[in-house]
Amino acid sequence: MSVNRIICLDAGHGGKDSGATGYGLREKDLCLERVLRMKQLFERKYRGSTVLLTRNTDVFLELGERVQVANEAGADVFISDHKNALNGSARGFESFIWNGGVSPSTRKLQATVHQHVIGALKRYNMPDRGKKQADFSVVKGSNMPAVLLEEGFIDHETDNSLLRQTDFKEAYCQAVVEGVAEYLGLQTKKDSRNSATSKEDKQDVLEHREIALQPTGAFATIQSTLNRRYNLSITIDNLFGPETREAFVKGLQTELNKQYNRGLTVDGVFGPKTKASCVNIREGASGNITWILQAILYCLGYQLGEIDGEFGIKTREAVKTFQRDTKLKIDGIAGKETFQKLFG
């Protein structure tokens, strides 16, 4: 009689807690995307297992609540997915277990999953930062082998670029799933030598790529608005890259010309003339410049509620947080120096 294995996957952060941010990405979004894909892979490829998620939407859970889900379900393994950050100065993959008295099974789970992930990401030149231990509550309080994974550094330009790539994401998710499956001794649903299975696997990956590349989401909406409002033709790919940043500057230059007769060349370059032309935007302001401010802050990972062109309390607090992060004077007013940091 086969034994059913329970796998608990934890998407780090969520809801009011965005986790680490960088270049328009938020840790909570990437973690949720990853565990949803892992769950799909487990259910399609392996038998004899049940996959639980601590969250399957953008909600906030306390660390204790996450562990409680796994403990109450009697899970056999607990995998907490995260993305790292260190002031843009580090990159690479690393895994963690609790630095207390862990079982040999916990060490085996970490070693197996870590080996699979590094093996899969080697072709992307992702550095191996090693198998580590730390006093992380989310792995400390579990009643089963638990591992926390840090896929890469969201605030490092190279890692950030990889975290966006569909092939990289798929390789990472496949590797985690295969590592857990090996540890648990899970059996595939079909003989891997069957050619039909190979075709299904390829189609599965293609479907996932197609879904991942659909131009939907908040960034895509912002890109569409920039195109429509400023007669641009940037690619709507739901990614915040150089093209979108340039479009923001063009929008700002257009608004400064229209509203304040600045006579700027609309070239998407935030140079000295554009900086000198910027005006102070503060609480109570409204309109397209406020919308541009809100949209760029959102793309950079700052929480401010609705992107509605209305400078309210949440926008002010987002500006203050950005100013604190970039070591500017913290006054909640978007002036020349703040715009310089945003667009320069």
H/I helix tally: 13
CATH architecture level-2 label of the largest domain: 3-Layer(aba) Sandwich
* CATH overall fold name of the largest domain: Aminopeptidase
- Strand proportion, as a percent range, falls in 5-15%
- Structural domain count: 2
Taking pLDDT < 50 over at least 5 consecutive residues as the criterion, the unreliable ranges are 191-198, 206-216
What is the helix content?
40-55%
How does this model look, in words?
Keywords: Hydrolase. InterPro entries: MurNAc-LAA_cat, N-acetylmuramoyl_amidase_3, Peptidoglycan-bd-like, PGBD-like_sf, PGBDSf. One of its GO terms (biological process) is peptidoglycan catabolic process. One of its GO terms (molecular function) is N-acetylmuramoyl-L-alanine amidase activity. This is MurNAc-LAA domain-containing protein. This protein has 344 residues and is of the alpha/beta class. It has two domains: 209 residues, Zn-dependent exopeptidases (Aminopeptidase); 126 residues, Orthogonal Bundle (Muramoyl-pentapeptide Carboxypeptidase, domain 1). Helices cover 49% and strands 14% of the residues. Strands 5-1-6-9-7-8 form a six-stranded mixed beta sheet, with helices on both faces. A two-stranded antiparallel sheet has the order 2-3. Strands 4-10 form a two-stranded antiparallel ribbon. Helix 1 crosses helix 6, helix 3 packs antiparallel against helix 6 and helix 8 packs across helix 9. The relative contact order is 0.11.
